[in-house]
Design a protein that fits this description.
The complex is a heterodimer of chains A (246) and B (459). Chain A is an alpha/beta fold and 246 residues long. Chain A has helices spanning 6-10, 54-62, 103-113, 118-128, 143-156, 173-188, 200-206, 224-231, 238-245; strands spanning 14-25, 28-39, 43-47, 69-74, 77-78, 88-91, 161-165, 192-197, 209-214, 217-222. Chain A has a domain at 1-87 and 162-170 and 191-246: P-loop containing nucleotide triphosphate hydrolases (Rossmann fold). The chains are: A alpha/beta (246), B mainly alpha (459).
């Protein structure tokens, strides 16, 4: 992977910048001229309703979808699509990796690929709460445990930026809080998260900044305070802001 | 949990990727189902082949000439592996498609391609899994060989290994076709349709165009089935071997081009063009390679050794004009007994077929139909024989040479075996399927102990 500069980890600075990203499906503009940046250790929430273009934006960002237009910069240097996997790791929504294998096999595979020690892998398993289901086949996991497995796989990667699509889908309130704490701990260690979330309450709890997306277009970007100012809603929730701006 | 040291893509170890691919293919039902289906198929073919071979051997007890015509390669090995060929053609694509198709359908491919491996590495790892699957699928056929040997049947090492190698190449070719189909198709079902259209389509092509001439003969040559023919005839031919390897490499390269989902289709098409051209060029070049080795014990693809040595010294061009239609049985005899052997033995042989289907149908106008004209240097002669016993002296006369003295002890003794393998059917429909089912169950057992539950683990 491409390591972020050591100095960049010590203080928040622009790690990743996306400029003018555009993706069309035929005549339909799925993502229209989206630009944003994210700093080291930051948690950026891409917030929007179903069909807003969140998944398309993430997949175009990580290079899994060919975008018609736009560029991604890593520490100021342009990152072409084939090299984006060196800097970003994307955890898609609705994926059940290696369904016929046991959860432990999937974790072991990623741990071995990224040369994690047994202790590091065990710590990840414990952190995401996978221990009770390690001996279960992936297809037999509940939605919540499958989500934990994906998060565990993501945490085993050494990438500086984790891009996650609907990371809290399938979790109850308690589990969501546990996972939010885990993501925050990782962010505090310098890992950056870009999360696509359609549950605004969850997004408000976990994200440092928000990118409001509707109809493939950016309707607002900034911290909760900045968005409140933009929407002229003092003390409004993210939901109120979203409704005001979209 | 994060690694403080930079992680370089090139350092990603291959072992976990290979282990994962092998485990994936062993975990799936497709391989085990194929194995269970292959057992009775191969068993029945083997028992039938041994039974017929045994009957022919009984007749050959009284006749050394008849015994000399009994070769286990033709009598037992080729029919037994013929059943394996059918299974590989019809069932193996499903096994090979699984190595990519399931990851594509479950979405796991989107994780896989983000791992620090090149697309080509991922495809090669999957091809390695296909190879492992073929090795497992060949167990019933290999067990048939073991049973034949235990019954006292003769196995000539060179021709057996050559036949196995041919089937291995054919299996890998079918696997590479299936893998490429899985790469370009969205679902496993579509991949299966594409792969089977190629494998069964070429099979049908082989059947329908067999014995035809001209364009039809050229099209028939494109059939995958043709790839196995030299190996079944006991020839190790450099051209077909390199051609199949080139096709496998080309299909793998194309699969690598089409694997990454983030590349625009237009770019993929443009990158495919040099791959396709390179494969076509390689295939074209391999058709010009004539080198081959006769690995059969009875030297059926060669003249006697003394003739081979003498013919190799005839450096002038030999032009053979055959006034026979390609579908005429006499042409098939001539091709097998004389032309193919001459082509291998002499450095410069040109064969021109001037007979037509109309001539073969018995039109009275062409009295020359059936004549074969041999021109060597400035001299020529005509014969109607399809036997080397008459053609070789004619050639030596044209070249002004004396025929070599036949060396004693050159004759193939033949390996008759009066036996039946009916009891072996119990192995193929009982014992082996039970073992396979047991291995399937064993492969699906849960992990005994978790390596991730050690105490005091710290990130």
């Amino acid at each position: 992977m491409i390591p972020a500069d050591a100095a960049a980890r010590d203080k928040p600075c622009e790690l990743l910048r996306v400029e003018n990203l555009t993706k069309r499906y035929g005549r339909e503009m799925a993502v229209a001229h989206v630009s944003f940046s994210v700093a080291t250790g930051e948690i950026l929430g891409i917030v929007g309703p179903n069909g807003a273009g969140k998944t398309t934006l993430l997949e175009a960002l990580v290079g899994l979808l060919a975008a018609e237009q736009g560029a991604v910069f890593w520490c100021g240097e342009e990152l072409p699509p084939p090299r984006r996997k060196e800097a970003l790791f994307y955890l898609p929504d609705g994926v059940r990796p290696y369904q016929d294998r046991f959860a432990i096999d999937a974790m072991t595979f990623f741990a071995r690929v990224y040369k994690r020690t047994q202790a590091q892998a065990a710590a990840t398993v414990t952190a995401v709460g996978l221990t009770p289901v390690l001996g279960k086949r992936v297809h037999a996991l509940s939605k919540g445990y499958n989500r934990r497995l994906l998060l565990g796989l993501g945490l085993l990667t050494p990438h500086d930026v984790l891009v996650m699509d609907e990371p809290f889908d399938g979790f109850d309130i308690r589990q969501t809080r546990t996972i939010i704490d885990l993501i925050r701990q990782e962010a505090a260690r310098g890992r950056t998260f870009i999360l696509a979330i359609h549950q605004l309450a969850d997004a408000e709890r976990v994200c440092d900044r928000f990118l409001l997306l509707a109809g493939g277009k950016v309707r607002g970007i900034g911290t909760l305070g900045e968005l409140r100012a933009k929407a002229a809603l003092t003390g409004g929730s993210l939901e109120d802001i979203f409704l005001a701006l979209t | 949990m994060r690694s403080p040291e930079p992680y370089l893509a090139r350092e990603a170890p291959l072992t976990p990727l290979l282990a994962k691919e092998l485990a994936e293919i062993v975990c799936g039902r497709a391989l085990w189902t194929m194995l269970l289906l292959v057992c009775p198929l191969i068993g029945y073919s083997f028992v039938q082949a041994v039974s017929l071979y045994g009957e022919a051997s009984a007749s050959a007890r009284q006749s050394p000439v008849l015994a000399a015509s009994l070769s286990p390669l033709d009598g037992v090995l080729v029919p037994t592996f013929g059943a394996f060929y059918v299974a590989v053609t019809l069932l193996f694509p499903f096994v090979a498609i699984r190595v990519l198709g399931q990851e594509k359908e479950s979405g796991a491919l989107r994780l896989l391609i983000q791992l620090p491996y090149r697309s080509s590495t991922l495809i090669l790892a999957k091809l390695a899994a296909v190879l492992a699957a073929w090795i497992l699928a060949s167990i019933p056929a290999l067990s048939a060989l073991a049973i034949w040997a235990m019954m006292g049947g003769h196995l000539a090492a060179s021709e057996t290994v050559n036949l196995l190698f041919g089937h291995l190449l054919y299996g890998l070719l079918v696997g590479a076709i299936a893998l490429f189909a899985a790469t370009i198709a969205d679902s496993s079902a579509t991949s299966a349709i594409i792969a089977l259209a190629v494998t069964i389509g070429s099979w049908v092509l082989d059947f329908t165009l067999a014995g035809h001439s001209g364009v039809a003969a050229f099209v028939a040559q494109l059939s995958l089935t043709q790839a196995l023919r030299p190996f079944e005839q006991g020839l190790f031919s450099a051209g077909p071997v390199l051609g199949i390897i080139g096709a496998i490499a080309g299909l793998s390269a194309l699969a690598s081009v089409w694997l990454p989902p983030g590349t625009p289709t237009q770019t993929k098409c443009m990158r495919s063009v040099p791959c396709v051209l390179a494969v076509l060029l390689a295939l074209g070049m391999t058709t010009q390679i004539k080198q081959s080795v006769d690995v059969t014990q009875d030297r059926r693809n060669s003249f006697p050794a003394a003739d081979q040595r003498l013919l190799a010294t005839l450096r002038l061009p030999l032009v053979i004009k055959v006034n026979l239609a390609p579908e005429d049985p006499r042409y098939a005899d001539l091709q097998r007994n004389v032309l193919a052997k001459l082509d291998r033995a002499m450095p410069n042989v040109s064969i021109i077929v001037i007979g037509s289907h109309r001539d073969a149908a018995g039109q009275p106008a062409n009295d020359a139909y059936g004549e074969i004209e041999y021109s060597y240097g400035a001299r020529s002669d005509v014969s109607r024989s399809t036997s080397p016993r008459e053609v070789l002296p004619l050639l030596y006369a044209l070249a002004g040479m004396q025929p070599p003295a036949s060396a004693p002890g050159d004759e193939y003794p033949g390996y008759p075996l009066v036996a039946t393998a009916d009891a072996a059917l119990f192995w193929f429909v009982g014992g082996l399927p039970l073992l396979i089912a047991g291995a399937w169950w064993w492969s699906r057992r849960p992990p005994a102990k978790s390596p991730f539950t050690c105490r005091g683990a710290q990130s």
